[in-house]
């Protein structure tokens, strides 16, 4: 009986997760380009400085080492962002705001459940991860991580590099950047993140005349265009051109991006 329940649970969990479509939430497509002020992400930067560790192709989070004080500071940072009205700011400032909020909330969710082997273990019994759960309230509106990524970031900016900016706390994911996003450094960080990922084995692996890509390029193929356009995108950042495209396989490692 237990084995049957486990099989049913795994089946429902798998079916419950599929790559969400990019569907604009029109309310958030407003900005004030005349406002030159910036949102402070200093607290998030301090967290990154304290707990990010570079290991080979991965940038890992030292979840186990996070102090009670720094956990409280992270929660306070998220609460402060909830009190910001992003629509009062420029689009460039909004992009940094949403990316940092997404990443900070993701780390906080892991810390709340730590120790845990994978973010996919979070959420309800039949959920595959926490992406559909309400996690923050901005302008009186409850938001999920899916809302931030697929109803705000993707449809408004329509930049495939967003997939390299938001982090899902997994080894297969593009690295959490060591710098908090700002309106000043966003372009630099997006280019850096894309270059890192596409030149890593978790992004693009060419081995034994076979091409294996991250599942991101399969899940969100609509953002990268045709196969030809995808290869052009990859070659834009690769130190060596992508070859052996006759048959492409996809893979993704959902293991937690933790320091062992």
Overall strand count: 7
Question: What form results from the Cα inertia axes?
Answer: globular
- Structural class by secondary-structure content: alpha+beta
Low-confidence stretches: 2-16
Task: Give the assembly state of these chains.
Answer: single chain
State the helicity in percent bands. 40-55%
- How far apart are the first and last residues' alpha carbons, in Å? 35 Å
Helix/strand order, N-terminal first: HHEEHHEEHHHEEHHHE
Number of helices: 10
Mean pLDDT: 93
Domain count: 1
Strand order of the largest sheet: 5-6-7
Beta fraction of the residues?
5-15%
Largest sheet: 3 strands, mixed
List the helices and strands and how they pair.
Elements: H1 2-16, H2 42-51, E1 52-55, E2 58-61, H3 68-82, H4 91-113, E3 134-138, E4 141-144, H5 145-157, H6 162-165, H7 186-198, E5 204-207, E6 210-214, H8 216-219, H9 221-224, H10 227-237, E7 248-251
Parallel strand pairs: 6-7
Antiparallel strand pairs: 1-2, 3-4, 5-6
Helix pairs in contact: 3-4, 4-5
Give a summary of the structure in a few sentences.
Residues 1-18 form the signal peptide. Keywords: Signal. The protein has helices at 2-16, 42-51, 68-82, 91-113, 145-157, 162-165, 186-198, 216-219, 221-224, 227-237, and strands at residues 52-55, 58-61, 134-138, 141-144, 204-207, 210-214, 248-251.
